[in-house]
Amino acid sequence: MKAPAPALVACLAIALMSSSFTHSTAQTPNNIEACEYDPGANRWFVSNGNSLLETSDQGASWDYFGSAEATHGMEVLGDVLYAIDAGTLRAYSLSTAEELGSLGLELSFANGMGNDGLNTLIISDFSSGKIIAVDVSDPAAMSKSTLVNDIGAKPNGVVVDVEGGRAVVVCWLGNADILAVDLVSGEVSTLVDGTGLGNLDGIDIDGSGRYYVSSWSPARITRYSADFTDAETVADGADGLSNPADISYATELDTLGVANSGNSQVTFHGFGTDGLEMLNHTEPRVWHNAEGFTAHLGDAGRVLLLAYALDGRLLGRTSLDLPAGRTRVRWDRLGREFVAASIIRVAQADGNWSSSLRK
User: I need a surface site. Which of 19, 59, 74, 137 has the fewest CB within 10 A?
Assistant: First the structure.
């Protein structure tokens, strides 16, 4: 993407993070374990004890998804949401929340789940090390088969690498491994022999084939290259992570949703690749994506916002009084000038800091 005119301030690439909730009239998450993105309706699901909640505004409000139940892994596949409810796999219509079918998994601790994009789910058994495949061609008549009797570790999160014909599985305990299971033969291979991380929980993949892995020790999201040769930390405890469990990457939004079992909050972390570049990074921190921005302030104060066209014309201005900590603000809350703007300058009223965001 072309750089803005020299007169404009440099743009700052950011990751959207939201770690606080406002109460909805229905419910707020509690005792959560898993989250899942539904691209058809642009909403997120989260397990809530054994009930299921949904949000269409990235956690600003939550509602029950009918009477659906989920305790662990979830997968959206076609027009169905599949959810592990203790030892049972349940299939729910995305449009009505009606239960379409269920299957007793006969596993000691059904935990992680991935899908092949067609009609197969891959599910891990945390206690026994078993990996099973479930045929969901007909949600009302699902059937299962064993892929691996014992993977040789405590398997947790699962994602399916469709092109590679394998399930990628992250494991529990210290210095945990990342393993691969061939979807045809069930052969197990090691992708990362000792990650240096403890208690890996969730894994998902983005549109570029990179893998995101959550760990409890330390509380971290690590991004691996497609071949697992490179790794980098992309979120940690400072970003609201607390025992991060199951995760879901929304490729349509370039946003990772994380179910934090330690504080019962879902955090959202944006990794947009639409021409944004990180040219500077100082505290306080500001992030944005297509929907709005999040400011992390050390102290409460007034923030000034200026909306510019790409050619530098000032479209509008406003100010907000924000509390200390993280506050998320949608562009449409600021007015149509900010929705239409190409560049937005965010500055503290006393002039101590400023950031410019290229939309």
Answer: 137
